[in-house]
Amino acid sequence: MKKIKAIIIRTAGTNCDYELKSAFEMCGAEAERIHINELIANKNKILSYDILAVPGGFSYGDDIASGKILSNEIKNKLGDNVKKFALSGKPIIGICNGFQILAKMGLLPKPEKFEQISTLSYNDSNKFECRWVYLKTEKKQGDTKCIWTKEIPDVISLPVAHGEGKFIADEKVLKEIEEKSQVVFRYCDKDGSKTQYPEDPNGSMNAIAGICNDKGNVFGLMPHPERYVYALQHPAREGYDGVYGWGKQIFQNAIDFLK
Amino acid sequence: MNSNVNIVEINSLNDNQLIELSKKNTLSLSLVEMKEVQKYFKAAKRNPTDVELETVAQTWSEHCKHKTLTGNIEYAEETSKGKKVKKYSNLLKETIFKATVELNKKWCISVFKDNAGVIDFDSKNGVAFKVETHNHPSALEPYGGSATGIGGVIRDILGVGLGAKPLANTDVFCFGLPDTKYSEVPEGMHHPKRIAKGVVSGVRDYGNRMGIPTVNGAVFFDKGYMANPLVYCGTMGIIPKNKAFKEVKSGDLVLVVGGRTGRDGIHGATFSSVELDKESDVSAVQIGNPIVEKKVLDTMLKARDLNLYRAVTDCGAGGLSSAVGELGEKTGVEVQLEKVPLKYKGLKPWEIWISEAQERMVFAVQPKNKHKILKLFKQENVEATFIGKFTNDNKLTLTYNGKKVADMSMEFLHDGVPKPTRPAVWKETKQLKQKPVKASAKVLADDMKKVLSDINVCSRDWIIRQYDHEVQGQTVVKPLLGNSIHNFGPSDAAVIWPYTVVKNTKKAVVLSNGLNPEYGKIDTYKMTTSAIEESVRNAVCVGANPEMLSVLDNFCWGNPNKPEILGSLVRAAQACYDMSKGFEIPFISGKDSLYNEYTIDGRTYSIPPALLISAMGVIEDVDKTITMNFKSAGNYIYLVGLTKNELGGSVYAKIKGLKGIVPDVDIKVSRKLMKAMYDAISSGFVEACHDCSEGGFAAAVSEMAFAGELGAKINADLIKTDFQMTLTEKLFSESNTRFIVEIMPENKEKFEKTLKGFVFAQIGTTESEQSLVIESKKSKISIKTKIKDLQKSWQRQLLG
Amino acid sequence: MIFEIAIKMKKGFSNPHSTHLISDIKGIGVKGIKSSEYMPVYRIDSDITKKQAEIIASELLSDKITEEFSIVSYNSLSDKKIEKNSIEVWFKSGVTDTVSESVVKAIKDLGIENEVKVKTGHKYIFKGETDDKKLTKIATGLLANTLIQEYKIK
Fold first, then answer.
1. Pick among C9, C11, C24, C63 to test the A interface (most A CBs inside 10 A)
2. By the CB < 8 Å criterion, does C29 face chain B?
3. Cβ neighbours of B346 in C, within 8 Å
4. CB contact A117 to C (< 8 Å)
């Protein structure tokens, strides 16, 4: 069978690209780190991949606001093909800075509309926060809408590391994504109940840590699943099958979905 | 010559005029040195240009040449045993470096010659480590100063061999007390809290944007650092062994890559050797741009793997002058200064040549790769410009728009600096045991909380969590550790498992440090032995093999022209030798920052001397590393090592205003015990391990308990001591070579067998009830404290 | 033309920089300041049109969901007036302004090819009992390092 190909878009200030590449590779995919300049020079290149990933980091220093400059650049110079990619149903993931970029260009929560209707703003603590958090996996009748989170336990933990992770949308948008079950992860306590700072690291509306589009193929989240693919990476070294971390399952899901 | 260039009249000057010239132009050259310059130009029958004079000043600066540590020292020592005199012609070579040479470890790849030390990681890769200081700039502009500090040391790692990939940063700071009254802050200085916050933000913003996790560090507060904070930044990286060396050949081209050159940091190198005062030169401040450096990192490693260049080094102190000069030392080099890309117009040739603008690297490129390498950098919007070529005339030749503005021999530049001779003295001060310290259970319980909330013991999470210490996903022993997500204690060391770089590896790299200026106020020899021991102990705690460790030294001292200050430095260097030899742990790199003094209202304040020891080693099997938090109830708690009456310089003594003996190191015992502990941990007998350091046993056992959300019951009468000690002394003495260990009952025999012949005792058990109970039947004292209360004390507000 | 674009939070959103600044002000012993509002300011010196300045402000410099912008323009800096009860902090000339370099790139990405010079600054507006002495103390003690930045108070 043909190997599944993932593209990891990078630019000046991208820095979670190597661990993301490792995560895809350990799940059997081929993953390439490609500079944005190369994609702009060859606009159809992006469509030759099966999975699109926008990694974490500080694209262009997060100057002005996090992810702002890269989201404009992608939208203005590659927008049509990125939208096409999303609407085709192929998996897209934006992690941390990647989530900020997807939200700010409007690929989330509604890629059909492709306009910014939500944002990620400064943490309430006014600080960069690097810590592990608990996440509640939102499920309806035991299943998730998002293709990236199948088989994920009700509560998992992942690390966050961001200064601008507070999810904000206006009431109407918020209502709609809640009604359509587009919330994928929420910050919670150990038992999955509502929590507060520091377990909720940023003060997001409805404690939202990650969302997807209505189709479930485009996924954006602030926590870093690529930093928890081995049990060894967990603070208490917990995981599954003795060696793996739950972050791995997220990448496995995208690959299994394509198979 | 050129109108942008001035000829400086030097040949006709008398001594006073030479001193005046050096001062006026911030050259920081001594009279002897100025006379040497004069001699060179008299022989050349001409006066130097300003470019030449500035170049000599940069090349001969304390910062670049380490004149004090490599100069002549006449050391006199007065102890109860009598007087002793010793002459050093190169302190560094006769102590620290000497130990490394004598140890001759096969796994040392490159030591004391490149931008960082490199040791073996596995058969194909090496790991590089370097720690730098950036004190003076951080005092003036804390944010920019610390940011460029971390930016600079990252470039050291990019500039070692043909370039290593950075995997982790470390940072260690010494600040004034955050609760200093505003009225006590000297005019023109920032408040210690502002300095601390600015420094932390600077490291945060630069390190986070570079995508390098900041995983290990320390913060020490003392009023002695109010006007002169210390900022140590370190970076560790991984490099293929076949890229670990550089070689410049005549005919290679000089390529400058990265940031543009501006007036930033003019005189940074010479400035770091002057005392700070109100009028300190402001252009010495540099501003960093991490994204430019990140782009350089991304692209240069690609160029490295395509073999597109033959040598690289970073532009640090002294700017192009130092970087190009170093690369061309053996060949000679010719540079066209007008080709250097500038941030703005109006720079004079000498400013271009010595500017310390950030984020620049210099490469030696074979002519055949000229176009390939330019294309590669251009693809990712990195500016790269050829500015000259390496020659075979052993000369430094600089031109500006076709006209010669500098023409000097490399030999004069690099070997011409005259060796100073400095006197150093040390007089022994007697350390006396304090009278027995007794206290009631209530007072002791209270003292435990006071110690845990002391500014030099309490949690650093406010700082640590602002650093992305998990980026790259390889930080498997983290700076804060706990059984669950919301409970944590301080880790002894960090472990980086570079699985994204070295596929399928089980090996990992350990990083730890030791620093305690409090001891140095009494005795710099013991401060040094303790710092080295602490760094090793910390690494052993997480499962590192002490036989595979290496260390770095970073001296921050006052003015070495004062004999007693230099004397305390000689003592510390001698201690480095003794420890390195005794432990068979080589030094692989180091740095010194002297003249850490500050003058205001005519009074000179010198900093308390500080020696930071940073340890790095390779761990065979990452699965065998362990963490410091208690793991489960019903396990046995051991205290390994001997507790002595050593309250001198301890946190407890500071709080209570006591004196006493500073902790010593028994090198022979310590070395063997470290090895035995490693054997026990790597055999899987140990659930948790934590060392006793600041705050003594009481602080360490508390940290293990609240990080693990478990209680403990301790029988203090079982603690092994050398002489009779009170409970207070047992709890708070900071004796070295001690570990608190958690063992499952079924491992008891195996563990004790491994430690046979050493001092240890099973002193208690872990409990599910979340209280720490410490009992002494002999003293008729029982202290019971809730874990939550201890944790609360430890997690007091730091700077927020 | 010089355009100064100031970004502020929309009603109903608060900038945590503003709220944290209040506690820092108390920390340095200045009393009576009730609230502060922080705004990043971008000074764009270019021959772009007002319309283009608005595009830059709405598409690039502000967040559509949480922020709004205001633009003032003048021919020369000397025409500029400082708002009452405010502190403005700008880099001294010659000091590297890294954000401005990114803004220049991003303006090009918007398809605006005119030559632009950008400077970034910070503006703080205070409510409560303010006076020059207090504002000076806040500016020098917290907001500006006079070594590399200059500040203006009103």
1. C63
2. yes
3. none
4. yes
Q: How confident is the model at residue A242 (pLDDT cuts 50, 70, 90)?
A: confident
Which residues, 6 or more positions from B120, have their beta carbon under 8 angstroms from its beta carbon?
A: B107, B108, B109, B126, B127, B241, B618
What is the enclosing helix (H) or strand (E) of B135?
helix B135-140
Q: Number of Cβ pairs closer than 8 Å across A and C?
A: 64
Contact C60 A126 (CB under 8 A): no
Q: pLDDT tens-digit profile of B592-645? A: 999 999 887 788 889 999 999 999 999 999 999 999 999 999 999 999 999 999
Contact check, Cβ <8 Å, A129/B381: no
Mean pLDDT (chain C) is 92
Tell me if the bond preceding B663 is cis, omega within 30° of 0.
no
Residue A174: CB partners within 8 Å, gap ≥ 6? A205, A206
The nearest CA of chain B is from the CA of A155 a distance in Å of 13
Token pair 């359509």 is found at A180
3-state helix, strand, coil in chain C (%, to 5): 35, 35, 30
Mean pLDDT of C90-95: 83
Give the pLDDT confidence of C106-131 residue by residue, as tens digits. Answer: 999 999 999 999 999 999 999 999 99
Check if the beta carbon of residue B255 is closer than 8 Å to that of residue B386: yes
pLDDT, residue B575, reads 98
All structural domains of chain B: 1-93 (no CATH), 251-391 (3.90.650.10)
- Contact (Cβ atoms closer than 8 angstroms) between residue B162 and residue B246: yes
B761: DSSP letter? E
Domains of chain C: 2-153 (3.30.1280.10)
Residue A24's contacts (CB-CB under 8 Å, 6 or more residues apart) are A6, A8, A30, A31, A51, A53, A251, A255
Mean pLDDT to the nearest integer, A157-182: 96
Calpha distance A236→B376 (Å, rounded)? 43
Domains of chain A, CATH where assigned: 5-258 (3.40.50.880)
B141: nearest CB among C29, C94, C148: C148
Of C64, C66, C103, the CB nearest to A64: C103
Which residue in B224, B526, B571, B556 sits closest to B427, CA to CA? B571
pLDDT 10s digits, C36-56: 999 999 999 999 999 999 999
Q: Is the pLDDT of residue A98 over 50?
A: yes
**C98 chain-A contacts, CB cut-off 8 A:** 61, 63
Neighbours of B420 (CB within 10 A): 16
Q: What number is the average pLDDT over the span B518-541?
A: 96
Q: Provide the strand spans (E) within B507-660.
A: 508-514, 549-556, 587-593, 597-600, 603-606, 610-619, 636-640
Q: DSSP per residue over B614-657, as a string?
A: EEEEEES-GGG--BSS---TT-EEEEES-B-S--TT-HHHHHHT
Mean pLDDT of chain A: 96
Q: Please give the structure tokens belonging to residue B258.
A: 């990265």
* Amino acid letter, residue B724: Q
ipTM associated with this complex:
0.96
Instruction: Work out the angle at residue B148's Cα, subtended by the Cα atoms of residues A161 and B284, and round it to the nearest 5 degrees.
Output: 150
Letter string b/e over residues B527-552, b meaning 16 or more CB atoms within 10 A of that residue's CB: bbbbbbbbbbbbbbbbbbbbebbbbb
Q: In this predicted structure, what is the pLDDT of residue B799? A: 87
pTM for the structure as a whole: 0.95
Q: Report percent pLDDT > 90 for chain B.
A: 85
